[in-house]
Structure formats: structure tokens, C-alpha cells
From TrEMBL:
Organism: Telmatospirillum siberiense
Domain spans labelled Tryptophan synthase beta chain-like PALP: 77-415
Similarity section: Belongs to the TrpB family.
Function: The beta subunit is responsible for the synthesis of L-tryptophan from indole and L-serine.
Protein name as it appears in the record: Tryptophan synthase beta chain
Length: 455
């Protein structure tokens, strides 16, 4: 009898609600602060850039938030996503560990991002919004919002980090195919972009800069709102469909994970796979170690400071307490563009401070080595971002081999790398190098952190 590889769920088992981890934490996360007053922000402060339904989710302490039926109907295009037992990888590693991955690359845009882009587009459409402005790093979020905008008849304007704009032309083409406008950031179209270009005409850009441009556009027009693909609570909330489905599928496989892994840049796919398992840990129903993996070139959790900081380089956003490298820090141009954000999601940062997760950092060549091994054993080419989770999963499996332990490893394969093949070409040609961050620049950025009275 052949051994089972895929664990699938019917469309009737798509989660009916998103899970809000805030409801179960032993200590509430620090509140976002108004940049001018230093006081906690209220819903009215967010109204210029977000629709009311999204604002309500951002500040909610309810455990479960119902997924609107129109959103669940669109989810059926790719959800529930498959859980796959990586038997080929297990054999190649000669490990006693069982390796499973939740594969989000089956979505139309090729990553986990539509889990939130569809929800955000729905809520904006319901409130009469005509246009959405956003940023994107590697382009997964930009293409996902473009996809969602096309379904709901919304114009979408995407500010794409300039280094990724050049590296990933087919991501731009995908956004344009869905009807969005894609602009290299920093751009001359906004005051924030022009200010950066005046100081650094050859700036490679950063997510912090691109956020400033998108927020400026949204705040300046009554018909436009801002949508973002990671970091804030409502985005992490929408991604929990990943973990909720994974729990059902792991139960179908008859195992519980000993290790749960996700790559982490802003924190969205990591939260999606991890937050439901953190709930189970807090309730005493799981013993899983939960590992968040970031790049050594942008090490917010392993090298950053836990402090209040701006979410963008232009200081247009509220102050949030997070692990940060400083809003002015520009990471080097490594290929995992979706992991180049200067901060980590405040809620992910909070659970790290509570000791509920383990951070880990890898250089990009080690991650590409792991990605190639997965491709040659399982047939799926991972996105550079996702390769960080693959690297950690392989290392955990090799640890099990060395220790003679048969543990169960679950990781989120957050997207495919079909638009990232130039990075693989560079890797095979030996051109892909491990790019260290500028320590002096990091130190300067941390000196610029805002002074906040938390009493």
C-alpha cells in the first residue's frame, strides 16, 4: 500500500472565522501611539487610511472574527490549501523526523498574501472606496492586492521597492495583468519619495520608504485607502486560516507537530501558521516549539531593539512597539525582498518578548541551498522568502537525525519561486553572495528611535 503524501480538505471546511491571538495572551500588547501626542491612538486616527471594518479588527480583543461569506466564496479558488508530507525530503536527509509543509503557493498570486488582500478589498469595496494604494517588496503582496482589486473593481497603485522592481520584472507584469499600476520606490510622485531621492538619488529603496509613499497617497485622496500585506494585527488575523486548516490536516495525519516553522519579514505568514499553535500552547494542548526565521541581512528579531518606532521611513504612521532596526535603516538588496522590512509585526514581537517563540537568522546562500534540495525532492521551487523556513526545517530534521529522535516538523511554504528564477540562476552561477548589513548604519538608525514615555 502506497504511503500518503497529500492531506486535503473539502471547501466546506474552510474556516468560518479568523483567530485573534490577542484574546488569549497572558499580557496585552503595548498600544500604538499617535506620533504627535505620544498617546494611544483611537479609531478616528486611522480613519483617513483604513476602512472602519478593518480598524475594528485592528483593535479587537474578540477571540473569533467571522469571515464574510463573499470572502469565503473567493477563498474557494485555492483554499483549503494542501498539507504535504515531504517524504522525498525525509528520504534524502535520511532523518527519522516526519516533515510536513502547508503549501500556500497554490493561490492565484502564488503566495499566502491573498488570504488578506481579498478580505481588505472586500471591506474597502463595502465602504465605497474606489482606489487602494500599497507598497510591496518582492511583489507577492502587490500582485495579491492587484488580484483582489480586479475581483472587486478597485483601482490599485503599488509602490514597489526599487531593488525588487529591477530584480523581478515578471512580478510587475503580473500586477499589470491584474490591472494595477506598479511604480518603483522611491519615486518622484510623492513628497516622501522626492525627499529620499534628493538625499540619495541612487537609493535602492526599502519597504519603509514604499510604505511612506503609499500612505501619503491614501491620506491625500478621499477616494483612496491604504492596504498593507503584513505587520499590523488585522493582517495577521486574516492569515490564521493557514494554521486553522493545518490543525485539521495534521489531525487527519494522526500527528501533532513538535516544531512549527515560518519565515518572518513583517510577520504575516509566520503568524498565520503559528498563532493557532500558540493558542494551543497557552492552553496546555501543545508542546510545539515555534520558530520564526529571518534573514541575517535584515535581522529584526535577532539584532534589533524592542522599542517604539515608526512603521515607515517618512514618519507618517503611528508609533508601534516592535523589534526594529530603525525606520531609517535600509537593508542590503538581497533576493528575499519580502523579508526586507526594518521592523517585525508588533504582535509577533510581543509573543517573542513573552518567550513563546524562538527567532533564528540565516544567510541567503544557505537558504537557496535548502530551496534547491526541496525542489529536487518535492518538485516545488520555493520563493526566496519561503526558503528560510525550508532551511530551518531541514536543520531541525538533521538535528533529529543526530539525536535519534522521531519528531514531527511542520513549516509554512508561503509561496512559489516561479517569478524569482533569476535568483536561482545567480545562485547556480555562484553570483549569489551573503550580503552583510551595515553595522554603522544600523547603529545610526537605532540612535534615531523616537523617545517615548511609556509610563
Amino acid at each position: 500500500m502506497s504511503e500518503r503524501v497529500k492531506y486535503l480538505l473539502g471547501e466546506d471546511r474552510i474556516p468560518k472565522a479568523w483567530y485573534n491571538l490577542v484574546a488569549d495572551l497572558p499580557k496585552p500588547p503595548p498600544p500604538p501611539l499617535h506620533p504627535a501626542t505620544g498617546k494611544p491612538i483611537g479609531p478616528d486616527d486611522l480613519a483617513p487610511i483604513f476602512p472602519q471594518a478593518v480598524i475594528a479588527q485592528e483593535v479587537s480583543t474578540e477571540r473569533w472574527i467571522e469571515i464574510p461569506e463573499p470572502v469565503r466564496e473567493i477563498y474557494k479558488l485555492w483554499r483549503p490549501s494542501p498539507l504535504i508530507r515531504a517524504r522525498g525530503l525525509e528520504k534524502a536527509l535520511d532523518t527519522p523526523a516526519k516533515i510536513f509543509f502547508k503549501y500556500e503557493g497554490v493561490s492565484p498570486a502564488g503566495s499566502h498574501k491573498p488570504n488578506t488582500s481579498v478580505a481588505q478589498a472586500f471591506y474597502n469595496k463595502e465602504e465605497g472606496v474606489k482606489r487602494l494604494a500599497t507598497e510591496t517588496g518582492a511583489g507577492q503582496w502587490g500582485s495579491s492586492l492587484a488580484f483582489a482589486g480586479s475581483l472587486f473593481g478597485l483601482e490599485v497603485e503599488v509602490y514597489m521597492v526599487k531593488v525588487s522592481y529591477g530584480q523581478k520584472p515578471y512580478r510587475r507584469a503580473l500586477m499589470e495583468t491584474y490591472g494595477a499600476r506598479c511604480i518603483a520606490s522611491p519615486s518622484p510622485l510623492t513628497a516622501a519619495g522626492r525627499a529620499i531621492l534628493e538625499k540619495s538619488p541612487d537609493s535602492s529603496g526599502s519597504l519603509g520608504i514604499a510604505i511612506s509613499e503609499a500612505v501619503e497617497v491614501a491620506a491625500g485622496r478621499d477616494d483612496t485607502k491604504y492596504a498593507l500585506g503584513s505587520v499590523l494585527n488585522h493582517v495577521l488575523l486574516h492569515q490564521t486560516v493557514i494554521g486553522e486548516e493545518a490543525m485539521l490536516q495534521m489531525a487527519d495525519a494522526g500527528v501533532d507537530p513538535d516544531v512549527v516553522i515560518g519565515c518572518a519579514g513583517g510577520g504575516s505568514n509566520f503568524a498565520g501558521i503559528a498563532f493557532p499553535y500558540i493558542r494551543e500552547k497557552l492552553a496546555g494542548r501543545s508542546h510545539a516549539r515555534i520558530v520564526a526565521v529571518e534573514p541575517t541581512s535584515c535581522p529584526t528579531m535577532t539584532q534589533g531593539r524592542y522599542a517604539y518606532d515608526y512603521g515607515d521611513t517618512g514618519h507618517l504612521t503611528p508609533l508601534v512597539k516592535m523589534h526594529t532596526l530603525g525606520a531609517s535603516f535600509v537593508p542590503p538588496g538581497f533576493h528575499a525582498g519580502g523579508l526586507r522590512y526594518h521592523g517585525m509585526a508588533p504582535l509577533v514581537s510581543h509573543v517573542l518578548e513573552l518567550g513563546l517563540i524562538e527567532p533564528r537568522a540565516y544567510a541567503q546562500t544557505a537558504c537557496f541551498e535548502a530551496a534547491v534540495q526541496l525542489a529536487r525532492t518535492e518538485g516545488i521551487v520555493p520563493a526566496p522568502e519561503s526558503s528560510h523556513a525550508v532551511r530551518a526545517a531541514i536543520d531541525e530534521a538533521l538535528r533529529c537525525k543526530a539525536e535519534g529522535k522521531s519528531e514531527t516538523i511542520l513549516f509554512c511554504l508561503s509561496g512559489h519561486g516561479h517569478f524569482d528564477m533569476q535568483a536561482y540562476t545567480d545562485y547556480f552561477a555562484g553570483k549569489l553572495k551573503d550580503v552583510p548589513f551595515d553595522r554603522a548604519a544600523l547603529d545610526r538608525a537605532l540612535l534615531e528611535l523616537p523617545v517615548v514615555d511609556e509610563n
